[in-house]
Amino acid sequence: MRESMLSEIGKYIFNPRSIAVIGASSDRKKELGGGWVGRLVQFGYEGKIYPINPKAETVLDIKAYPSVSAVPDDIDYVIVSIPSQHVLEAVKECIAKKVKVVHVYAAGFSEIDKEEGKARQKEMENVIHSGETMVIGPNCLGVYSPKNNLSFDIRFSKEAGTIGFLSQTGVGGRKLVNLANERGLRFSNVVSYGNAIDLDGPDFLEYFADDPETKEILVYVEGVKNGRKFFTTLRECTKIKPVVLLKAGLSKSGAGAAASHTGSLAGSREVWQALFRQTGVIPVQTLEEAVDQLVAVIDVPEIKGKRIGLIGRGGGFGVIASDLCEAHGLVVPRFCDETRAKLAELTPAEAGSSVRNPVEIGLGRRGLSEYYAQGVEIVGADPLIDIIITYLNPEDYLHYGLGDWADAVSRELVKVVKNTSKPFIVSFMQGRNPQVFELILKIQDKCQEAGIACYSSIENAIKAASKLADYYEFRNRERKR
Amino acid sequence: MRESMLSEIGKYIFNPRSIAVIGASSDRKKELGGGWVGRLVQFGYEGKIYPINPKAETVLDIKAYPSVSAVPDDIDYVIVSIPSQHVLEAVKECIAKKVKVVHVYAAGFSEIDKEEGKARQKEMENVIHSGETMVIGPNCLGVYSPKNNLSFDIRFSKEAGTIGFLSQTGVGGRKLVNLANERGLRFSNVVSYGNAIDLDGPDFLEYFADDPETKEILVYVEGVKNGRKFFTTLRECTKIKPVVLLKAGLSKSGAGAAASHTGSLAGSREVWQALFRQTGVIPVQTLEEAVDQLVAVIDVPEIKGKRIGLIGRGGGFGVIASDLCEAHGLVVPRFCDETRAKLAELTPAEAGSSVRNPVEIGLGRRGLSEYYAQGVEIVGADPLIDIIITYLNPEDYLHYGLGDWADAVSRELVKVVKNTSKPFIVSFMQGRNPQVFELILKIQDKCQEAGIACYSSIENAIKAASKLADYYEFRNRERKR
Fold first, then answer.
1. What is the ipTM of this complex?
2. What is the CATH number of domain A308-480?
3. Which residues are CB-contacts of A167 (< 8 A; sequence separation ≥ 6)?
4. The CATH number of domain A5-137, selected from 1.10.12.10, 3.30.930.10, 1.10.390.10, 3.40.50.720
5. pTM for this structure?
6. How many CB pairs below 8 Å do chains A and B form together?
7. What residue in B sits closest to A460 (Cα-Cα)?
8. Which residue of A has its CA nearest to B393?
9. In this predicted model, what pLDDT tens digit does every residue of A50-65 receive, in sequence order?
């Protein structure tokens, strides 16, 4: 990384004072429907905007200029949104203008399966090296910085949070932000950087590792050029901040697909798996899993070990949950005698109750059992248990009429968490009933607000808990060194 | 199995002419809310019903009797729904009455963590061996036979289908039927048989293997006593019918949980994994996966190999999908030259299209691309491809206003399947948006009607396709022997 680039990224990439858009449209509807000036305006960007269009007087009532060189002031950030064959000229102009950052939105470079694309990227590389301008892209969506009212998608949350996210891919990264936003997760800054002709994953990673507003880091890469730097930065970073890593293109065919997506050299599965192990990142395989993992990272307190206490109704579900725990590297131990004795006192010894681990106490027939909260408390007090996972099946209560079930259950869960000393994770069984779907959403939203990690399946909950336990184990071992 | 038991199961268990309920309640509301007479009446059972209650004149307006021996006629099937300490007497009476089948609903036997339960079960075993009466249970829900209007849950579909399902667990089995019903799947017969004091998994398996109305078999076991018979029956059965097997209690802790759930000896993971390999069953881990697998078994035509053609929009999703394919044992090969040439002709060479595998053609910006159907057809014609999996992301189209999107897309998908010679599987990305959830349901329902296998995530689609390919590979190898 060039000297002082860390501060330059924070200053010019995530918080530029001015943005020019090369390829702005004079067609109002088009610009508002998906143009870059339209996005800036609609997301409330407060800096100066310079639409660049040789034929337009104004774009969305903002004075337009025929070229960046025609703009009378300095420009921090330029978005290049024109066909690939004209990009090189535009970038040259930006360098001449001493623009701080160029974001090349346009695709058609090393990711396409033709010599002309690769040649175009090579040529651009040469041009960039001659100047001081930082380049993001090509073939990417650029920046989302909620606290600076800057976003490549106007549907994103305007609320700022603590997740720093670097995404090589555009559409996938956007979807990830959407999924995370829906789960109540908020970002400090996000960058989609595509083919990484200049700024690459390791640069942004280093920035987020250093950034005090970023408490967790999400990385979505297909490949990195400077693998050594990526490795060492990750290794240092995980000692202070958890890093969730979605590495796409691990397979042979996936690597081929990555080459034609972001022009990346994906690297072999073995190399990456060694990196996962040695850096202490939390590896995930899909967008959904990435979000599930972030929820655990943010909402679950430090996990001290891998011994799970399972609580729910339905003995069969308990057996399956135990199997899943073991398959994912967790342990479902026998409770200590005191716990068993207390549970035996608490629950009636009849069909549908068990004082073993998994404990069979549901939320009661009509939603709330008088035994539930106490049961969780007893299990939480067991010195042999590190985490509690509960599994609920709202569909089973539907025919009793649910009324204020969501309110009652979420109130109970919030109370339970308060009275329990151990990390507590909630999972729901989802069916295909829209009523149940919305009911679960409602409970999850309330739990989310209270900082309780909620999952749509017991398997997802177990996976996330297990990987989080791995992370803390790694971190604490590293810190002791 | 006793001589002629196969026909006895079909005759007396799934289609009894008369049913007595020991433990029927004279409280109308209670009986309708969850009593066994209530269930029979509400599900439309057409045989004779004999409520047994020493203190009642009638139950739901049906003449009651003080005991089974007081019933003047023969009884095919008796449901025992009284506290465990009185069950033995009731079973003895049934044997004396020469009842054909006794279903012991009551729990409190070998599954409870106390000597008294185990002793009670042992005692009952001795009693059973003295008579000709077949016993289902204890600790189970019994029978669901839609064509005979018989069900342990009145919410189940009244439509009969082709899946034969034997479930050791009650609540889990019920949930599985619910989940399957919601996906449009229908059953020939279902039995929940719990602790298996007499009739065990292998007995029902043998029945379903032989039953012409059963085309696919679903097995949900925690343990079996006669492992040898189970193994040989499975091995024969998979040559003619696919068997989806959910074996719960594979882990050490799961096995402990199984012991306290259905009193099963769960067996070691190694033994079961050898059974999976050698019998050609399709093993699954959760209820949701079982249903996903059944959908593939029923709706996907025979898969000839493991080479996948992937089609969707979003290069990043394609990379992840490729990784998942490889992780699940599938291959994403390079298309043959002819396919690539045809795809290159079809799709414009710009951002968001690729003629490699995965192919990037979505359903178009507004839902339907004019290239989509043709693209699938071209890929389907490639001799290097065995299955096509497509991934759709309806949320991305939401802001265009979806209107009749569901209709248009499902019409297109139905057309696509007709014109494609290869198995074609559809997957959707699900978010947390209720509008998207319902939209996907709507498309899935329409696809389901047309016999197209639909999944709520690309990973689930890939998993199901891979295991189905394994099954056909196994079956064809076995048949050639």
1. 0.88
2. 3.40.50.261
3. A173, A176, A190, A191, A192, A193, A218, A219, A220
4. 3.40.50.720
5. 0.91
6. 236
7. B286
8. A175
9. 999 999 999 999 999 9
